[in-house]
């Protein structure tokens, strides 16, 4: 059996697969995000480790005893800075933190070839500008930095004592030469760092170390190998068999991601699309990234006093597609694709005297769908063909939302059994490859199809006018036009 651990933003998930790929055990533990100032988003690295222990120990002891390998997945881009004693110097700065827009401009000016090397535009969510922000604003902390790790790799350090990372997660730092799959001395130097501050690099299906004896004892399992794993999106792709050129998925988690596997390096940063290494050797991937997706559903449930997400979805369905004039701009944490705007914030437009919680719920589902459609348009502009998306993440549970998304994007959605398990599933499969070897295409097969949603032309026609209004609305809420700046 193989254990996959996913260090997410809202929680840690641990999943055990048997050799046939069936889920035989699961555990979860919640995490919280701290936002001490506008645009800031931080977490305590030790909270990841506490949650990891809780999630693993929630799995039945008899299942844990049979684990033969562990893989890790995690939220990308988080800047976890450690001193010489390997202890965190401050809270980790997360992927959805927007404080360092000025440092992005500074980095692009310092390294004109940054986009060619990294395959990406500098955005506040990436790791490198966060380190420039620390150098500019917290110089005492920066001077003490011995190592920079990504969130899952801090957990790995606690598990194995090793400083290691995989290429898919490290590609999101802006320090990787993504085409060559190695650290870039040029990009590191621009941030006052060197490879001495970085973990060792491994393909996702390689072994980076072994579980330390005391951790193995506490978890009730042997001192098993630990695989490099992957960033959350790449690991999620491995879990649902997106491992060949042209395979694609839609991840509906806290953020929303459209992910397309490619067999070569195809950067196209001009419209804020991402190009990263995949978690398997010889593969890369393109992504459109939306900083708020399922998190918007949780948010509107909270502000409308709805008891559960399921209840909220039912409230939306009672209204139906385009059942009200309300538009929702889902930029609660800024946006990446296609706007690259860390400062923009969400908005409701078109409210009237008949607006109620049901119509707000429907507007939120539509707004996220329209944002995803914007991102898919960007990928299609690069020449990528996407006609079918495998759906993973917590948002995959809702067939009603799926019908709205399929119509907005004009793409078939395939829901896979166990698809809501997400990146932890892929992390376990990477552990299986690390321990047993084999052909990734044979090991990383897509789970059985639970249902398929094809675009409904009637829903597409109903949503068309609101989609056009959504496209036009961004210019009305971008920060330069915001009341905050009047």
Give a description of the structure:
The protein is α+β, with helices and mostly antiparallel strands and 486 residues long. The protein contains 18 helices and 24 strands. The chain has a seven-stranded mixed β-sheet. A five-stranded mixed β-sheet has the order 3-2-1-5-15, with helices on both faces. Strands 4-7 form a two-stranded antiparallel sheet. It is globular and about 60 Å long.
Q: Which sequence of strands runs across the widest sheet?
A: 18-19-17-16-22-23-24
Task: Tell me the number of strands.
Answer: 24
How would you sum up the major sheet? 7 strands, mixed
Strand content of the residues, in percent? 15-25%
- Tally the helices: 18
- Which runs of at least 5 residues are low in confidence (pLDDT < 50)? 482-486
Our measurement of the CA-to-CA distance between the termini, rounded to an integer number of angstroms, reads 59 Å
In a nutshell, what does this entry contain?
The chain is an alpha+beta fold and 486 residues long. The protein is 37% helix and 21% strand. It is globular.
What attributes does this structure have?
single chain; 486 residues; alpha+beta; 7-stranded mixed β-sheet; 18 helices; globular
């Amino acid at each position: 059996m193989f254990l996959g651990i996913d260090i997410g933003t809202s929680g840690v998930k641990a999943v055990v697969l048997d050799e046939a790929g069936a889920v035989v055990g699961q555990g979860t533990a919640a995490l919280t995000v701290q936002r001490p100032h506008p645009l800031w988003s931080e977490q305590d690295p030790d909270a990841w480790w506490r949650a990891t222990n809780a999630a693993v120990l929630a799995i039945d002891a008899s299942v844990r005893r049979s684990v033969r390998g562990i893989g890790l997945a995690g939220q990308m881009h988080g800047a976890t800075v450690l001193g010489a004693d390997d202890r965190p110097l401050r809270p980790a700065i997360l992927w959805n933190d927007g404080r360092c827009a000025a440092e992005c401009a500074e980095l692009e000016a310092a390294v004109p070839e940054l986009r060619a090397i990294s395959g990406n535009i500098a955005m506040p969510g990436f790791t490198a500008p966060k380190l420039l922000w620390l150098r500019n604003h917290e110089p005492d902390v920066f001077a003490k930095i011995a190592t920079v790790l990504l969130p899952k790799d801090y957990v790995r350090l606690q598990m194995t004592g090793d400083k290691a990372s995989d290429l898919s997660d490290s590609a999101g730092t802006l320090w990787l030469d993504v085409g060559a799959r190695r650290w870039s001395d040029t990009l590191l130097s621009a941030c006052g760092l060197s490879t001495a501050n970085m973990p060792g690099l491994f393909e996702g299906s390689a072994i980076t170390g072994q579980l330390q004896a005391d951790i193995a004892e506490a978890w009730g399992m042997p001192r098993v190998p630990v695989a490099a794993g992957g960033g959350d999106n790449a690991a999620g792709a491995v879990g649902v068999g997106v491992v060949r050129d042209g395979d694609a998925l839609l991840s509906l988690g806290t953020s929303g991601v459209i992910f397309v596997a490619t067999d070569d390096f195809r950067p196209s940063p001009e419209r804020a699309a991402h190009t990263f290494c995949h978690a398997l050797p010889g593969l890369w991937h393109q992504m459109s990234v939306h900083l708020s997706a399922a998190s918007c559903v949780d948010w509107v449930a909270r502000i409308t006093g709805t008891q559960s997400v399921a209840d909220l979805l039912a409230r939306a369905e009672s209204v139906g597609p385009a059942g009200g004039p309300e538009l929702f701009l889902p930029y609660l944490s800024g946006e990446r694709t296609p706007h690259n705007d860390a400062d923009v914030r969400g908005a409701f437009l078109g409210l009237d005297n008949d607006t109620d919680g049901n119509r707000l719920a429907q507007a939120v589902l539509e707004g996220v769908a329209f944002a995803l459609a914007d991102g898919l348009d960007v990928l299609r502009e690069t020449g990528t063909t996407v006609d079918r998306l495998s759906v993973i993440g917590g948002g995959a549970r809702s067939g009603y939302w799926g019908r709205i998304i399929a119509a907005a994007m004009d793409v078939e959605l395939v829901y896979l059994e166990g698809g809501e398990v997400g990146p932890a599933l892929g992390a376990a499969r990477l552990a299986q490859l690390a321990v047993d070897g084999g052909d990734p295409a044979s090991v990383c097969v897509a789970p059985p199809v639970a249902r398929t949603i094809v675009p409904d032309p009637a829903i597409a026609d109903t949503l068309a006018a609101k989609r056009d209004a959504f496209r036009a609305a961004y210019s009305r809420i971008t920060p330069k036009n915001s009341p905050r700046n009047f």
